[in-house]
Amino acid sequence: MRIRTTAAVAAMSSLALLTGCGAADMTKQASPFANAQGSRTVTLSVQSWVGAQSNVAVAQYILEHELGYRVDTVQVDEVPAWDALSQGRVDALLEDWGHPEQEQRYVKDKKTIAPGGELGVTGHIGWFVPTYFAEKHPDVTDWKNLDKYADQFRTPESGSKGQLMDGSPSYVTNDKALVKNLKLDYQVVFAGSEAAQITQMKQFAKEKKPFLTYWYTPQWLFEKVPMTEVKLPPYKEGCDADPEKVACAYPHTPLQKYLNADFAEKGGKAAAFLKKFKWTTEDQNEVSLMIADKKMTPEDAAKKWVDSHKSTWKKWLS
Amino acid sequence: MTEIPTLEPPTEQTMDSSTPVFSVEGLWKVFGPKAERVPADPELTALDPAELRARTGCTAAVRDVGFDVRKGEVFVVMGLSGSGKSTLVRCLTRLIEPTAGTIAIDGEDVRAMDRSRLRELRRHRAAMVFQHFGLLPHRTVIDNVAYGLEIQGMGKAERRERAAEVVAKVGLDGMEHRRPGQLSGGQQQRVGLARALAVDPEVLLFDEPFSALDPMIRRDMQEEVVRLHHEEGRTMVFITHDLQEALKLGDRIALMRGGRIVQLGTPEEIVGSPADDYVREFVRDVPREQVLTVRTAMRRPSADQDGSGPAVRPDATVSEAIEAVARAGAPARVMDKGRCVGVVDSDTLLGVVAGTEQTAPPGTVQPEEAV
Amino acid sequence: MATITASPPRVGLPALLKHRAVHKLLLLALAAAILVPLANARWASGTWPSALTVDFSEPLAKASDWIIDNRDSHPLFLYFFGHVSNVVVIAVRAVYLTLLAIGWAGVTALGALVAWRVAGVRLALGTAAAFLACGLLGMWVPTMQTLALMVAAVLASVVVGALLGLAAGLSDRMDRLLRPVLDTMQVLPAFAYLLPVVLVFGIGVPAAVLATVIYAAPPMARLTSLGLRGADKEVLEAVESLGSTARQRLLTARIPLARKELLLGLNQTIMMALSMAVIAAVIGAGGLGDRVYQALASVDVGAALAAGIPIVLLAVVLDRVTCAAGEKIGAEPEPHGGRGWLIALAGVVAVAVAGRLAGRLDWPDSWVVAIAEPVNRAVDWMTAHLYSGVPVIGGTADWAGHFTTWVLDPMRDGLQALPWWSVLLIVAALAWVIGTWRTALTAVLAMAAIGVLGVWKPSLDTLSQVLAAVAVTLVVGFATGVAAARSDRLERALRPVLDVFQTMPQFVYLIPVVALFGVGRAPAVAAAIVYALPAVVRITTQGLRQVDPAAMEASGSLGATSWQQLRQVQLPLARRALLLAVNQGLVLVLAVVVIGGLVGGGALGYDVVFGLAQGDLATGLVAGAAIVCLGLMLDRVTQPTERRAKKGA
């Protein structure tokens, strides 16, 4: 018993010694892997979709080769990324699809996250069918007619209903509520990841089979598999406020960048650069296509883009 | 047996042979719930083990045992497994806490000792050798032997030096840096013995030390103990279930059965005059001629025999006398301090071997002669 | 026949057992006959009645919000969790910076020389090769990050585990208190531990390290306690008889006597920590796991493999070196052990300084072999040619599709169509017949808790995947195990394979199955099968081999064929081992099936991932709790009356 108490006391006192006896705010801790070996490190969060990878790849390439930073990337999904950003474990989030709740909490209340301006790309989520199918059945592009085609969209996973394919669990989606509230004869099936979803879509496209999927623009896959959007009840400001009662389309969102507040202030050239980083949908798709379809490494793809678009990125450094 | 345990502090007493090293009286060890009520209740103490168990759920491993261990003697406690002998020896240094009774070492009450005094007793006054050796497998031979000294807080160099001497004494030179796992059983027990000797205890306690060994090695080890005893004259308490071993080593033997001592006496008394049928059955196959002395077998000398025939000492064994008688072809005289105290002839000697000779009842031999 | 029926005393033990089982079942049937109509009338049958569910998402979401809002202000966080988190960050950072400061050459030299001192030249070469391979694959920095995290987590686990083990080893009360908790913790899937720590610490390294500690400390605690309790009684008595104090006894005898168990505990702790440190990538652990996670998210098999190989190499090296250290115990100590260590240390310092002077601390970029591309090309080729439409045998995707359509779907639909009370009854019956009423009660309560949590359907989905995987695992595992038990050659050939497979972290198994079967439930099941198979084969082989040779000889002498021997002697006598194999199979399969959420396995595992990805901890925590309940239920249902000694991990 005595030994145990001694050990406990020793552990507690060493803990106190190590940390100092005062308060320790764990929301102000950097990643233990940051800024190693005296080099300046920027930690960027990567989301799992390729567009986000393209942003990060180009930013990383310029930070490393033009500004002399060391860049760590961490795979964090959007919502946790907000938390990580607030805690300083991540310095920047380059593509956010709109999280008003988080924005309220971190940007307005706590002021631990600073807005980093627009990315220059406008995102839009919707339901899509392949164009080859829409051409044959033009009325499928209105949600009211979807039930008519439920039979054709059936798969083993969806059972007796039509399949509405969703992707990664991290994506912004109201699909389950939509299917319920629009009283559609469909089953939402999660592919589990974007890559899985793309594989499936390509497979379907190869065999010219019909499918209905959750998808978004900008997305490089449109170049490979042309798709047409299904019109949902039109979006009105606030119609998606209650996730249980949503019955309208997704909005068009100008994608935003966010920086950790401290980093935004003291991040020097890196922070200034990331604030100015702004490109177009075409730029992003160009890089994405190289990564996803031509199977280039993100670094090579970024290099190729940077080499051929000097005028674009020179402005970010001024 | 009849001695009253010394209750005064031993300070004024000189340690002559009459002061027992261990003095045990009315010792009980009862296992089970509320064990302490058993020795106190005469009604319960009268019960046999099965009844006791049924009535109280308790088992009495040691029941009302008393004896003295004299300085310099080898005191053997013998009994079959389950007779309580191992429990008894553990009670002596309170490795097992006795339930009732008194134990004194050099007159000092062991049961009244506090923790530190008890540790002192275990560190310096009584060391034990165990049946399965109880060696620390992660230490070398020398560090095992020095372990007792280390416990006492002795410095490394000094204790190693002391340990090396003892290692040599038990015949393990050259093996100091082996691990116990690399030694044979006999060698391991030598390490166990050396570990006990290293602390230079007043008493050595042996708990069936050789029963796990092969017969040949067992004999070697027994001789080792005899040799050590001759050389150092250390007091020993020796637990065994082997009658041969008990007779060979013991100056006196306490024979235990069911937690009680059924007979306590010299080997000769045990073999020569068993106290009851159990003991008689026990010693039946013992070669009596090697245990009994001519003193038991002799008859009064008639006048004419005075001066003739070979002479034998009274404590010579019968088998020695047989050899003398056979060689001379005549009865032998038993000579004590130049005086003929008796005569043995082939008839009396044969009677001993056959067991038909009615030996003198116990008590006729004075205790001091048996030492 | 008449004589047999007329002589009840001749009923043998198995018949008696059956008898008892029948009794239990009758009793259960009676209870069911009374309760089921009641339950039916009240709540209707079919899926779990919504009247009996409690919605935890509201309070959980509130709790989660409260924590996020108060993390930088509440004293509990400022003065306790904040410090914990701080210490973790400081420790990991210190190790990481040290590793980077010694440079790649220094770290390789350090690893190799430690392996040399502890385990000999061969393992030293293996260790060096492993480290160099990590560098060649371009994974040097992630490897160091994982290593830094591991070092901190293992040290903490060992300290925590050893202290708990000491408490349990020395005090009977603590032992009674801790043992069931530790036993249960060992059967729970790693995935379930992630969410509670994220709730408190948020995503990041501190949460990852703490989850790792929680997962990896129990084996250390159990084995410490086991070692202390298993110490040779006579040695302890001998030590006491020499007048030692309690402290001396502990330090000079009890702990050294338990060193084999302590080292085994260290080995298991390291292996479990590695496994968890990789899975913890999901909550921001960084390092190799993060690379695998990123690659899996984009089904980039090549990149996943490049990060997966270093994990496997680390696992094998760490396992072999700690095992060798354990085996060395009790051998003759080397005469100049101290000098050897000195040489080793000098060597490391020399290499590190040389690396520093040469300015070559970072792994040179030009030395990286990019395997991702060729691997992906191979996978593409496979997808194009083997995936589907292969004549006669069909492609791998076809298999996966058929497995989903013909096995997984019917099982899931069947389970979900069962009335809820009948599921509880089946659980109760199985658990009671195999174990005791206690295990049955725990199992039923765990199952009921799943219903109350409101995740009945996804849990049954997960359960259907587990059952399908276990069925395949057992068929293949028993067959292989029987074959290995009958042929020494096969066993010898299998042993190294099993060794390697058993040391690999769960995460790694997801990589090849995604390449082969695409995404969905089938690959999750396949990964689970591959992960659980080694343990099942090993336990089966051991169980069959431990059958009393006298019984085998006797039956052989009576002229039994080897098939008869197997059926009538070996299998019945090895019943315990076989049951243990089933139990282990279930526990291991569940662990991987839930990770399968990352590759489209859906159900509970997906909910956890979803919870983490959306910051919707309420969903994640409920799913995590359901996983715990499912694990508990599966363990208890197959638990033999006595508790097994240790996990076959």
Low-confidence stretches of chain A: none
Structural class of chain A: alpha/beta
CATH A-level architecture of the largest domain in chain A: 3-Layer(aba) Sandwich
CATH superfamily of the largest domain in chain A: Periplasmic binding protein-like II
Signal peptide (chain A): 1-23
Organism (chain A): Streptomyces cahuitamycinicus
Protein name (chain A): Glycine/betaine ABC transporter substrate-binding protein
Pfam families (chain A): OpuAC
Secondary-structure blueprint:
The complex is a heterotrimer of chains A (318), B (371) and C (649).
Chain A lengths: L1 H18 L21 E6 L3 H16 L4 E6 L2 H10 L4 E5 L3 H11 L2 E18 H6 L25 E5 L8 H7 L4 E5 L3 H13 L5 E6 L3 H4 L2 E4 L21 E9 H6 L1 H9 L4 H12 L5 H11 L1 H8 L1
Parallel strand pairs in A: 1-2, 1-3, 5-6, 5-7
Antiparallel strand pairs in A: 3-9, 4-7, 4-8, 4-9
Helix pairs in contact in A: 2-11, 2-12, 11-12
Chain B lengths: L21 E10 L5 H4 L1 H4 L3 H8 L2 E11 L4 E6 L5 H8 L7 E6 L2 E2 L5 H11 E4 L11 H5 L1 H6 L3 H14 L15 H14 L4 E5 L7 H18 L2 E6 L2 H7 L2 E6 L2 E6 L1 H6 L4 H7 L10 H4 L13 E2 L5 H11 L3 E5 L2 E6 L1 H9 L12 H4 L1
Helix pairs in contact in B: 8-9, 15-16
Chain C lengths: L1 H5 L6 H31 L13 H14 L4 H45 L1 H16 L3 H31 L1 H16 L6 H8 L3 H25 L3 H9 L4 H12 L1 H21 L7 H11 L3 H28 L8 H21 L14 H14 L10 H22 L2 H15 L2 H17 L2 H31 L1 H16 L6 H8 L3 H25 L3 H9 L4 H12 L1 H21 L7 H12 L2 H21 L12
Helix pairs in contact in C: 2-18, 3-28, 4-5, 4-6, 4-9, 4-15, 5-14, 6-7, 6-9, 6-12, 6-13, 7-9, 8-9, 8-28, 9-12, 10-11, 12-14, 13-14, 14-16, 14-22, 17-20, 18-19, 19-28, 20-21, 20-23, 20-26, 21-23, 22-23, 23-26, 24-25, 26-28, 27-28
Brief sketch in words of this structure:
Chain A: Residues 41-307 form the ABC-type glycine betaine transport system substrate-binding domain. The complex is a heterotrimer of chains A (318), B (371) and C (649). With 318 residues, chain A is α/β, with parallel strands linked by helices.
Please provide a written account of the structure.
The complex is a heterotrimer of chains A (318), B (371) and C (649). Chain A is of the alpha/beta class and 318 residues long. Chain A is built from 13 helices and 9 strands. In chain A, strands 1, 2, 3, 4, 5, 6, 7, 8 and 9 form a 9-stranded mixed β-sheet that branches. The mean pLDDT of chain A is 81. Helices cover 38% and strands 20% of the residues of chain B. Chain B has helices at 37-40, 42-45, 49-56, 85-92, 115-125, 141-145, 147-152, 156-169, 185-198, 215-232, 243-249, 267-272, 277-283, 294-297, 318-328, 346-354, 367-370; strands at 22-31, 59-69, 74-79, 100-105, 108-109, 126-129, 203-207, 235-240, 252-257, 260-265, 311-312, 332-336, 339-344. In chain B, a hairpin with a 2-residue loop joins β12 and β13 (339-344). The longest helix of chain B has 18 residues, at 215-232. Chain C is 80% helix and 0% strand. Chain C contains 28 helices and no strands. Chain C has helices at 2-6, 13-43, 57-70, 75-119, 121-136, 140-170, 172-187, 194-201, 205-229, 233-241, 246-257, 259-279, 287-297, 301-328, 337-357, 372-385, 396-417, 420-434, 437-453, 456-486, 488-503, 510-517, 521-545, 549-557, 562-573, 575-595, 603-614, 617-637. Chain C starts with a helix and ends in a 12-residue tail after the last helix. Classes of the chains: A alpha/beta (318), B alpha/beta (371), C mainly alpha (649). Chains in contact: A-C, B-C. The interface between A and C is large, with 61 and 77 residues.
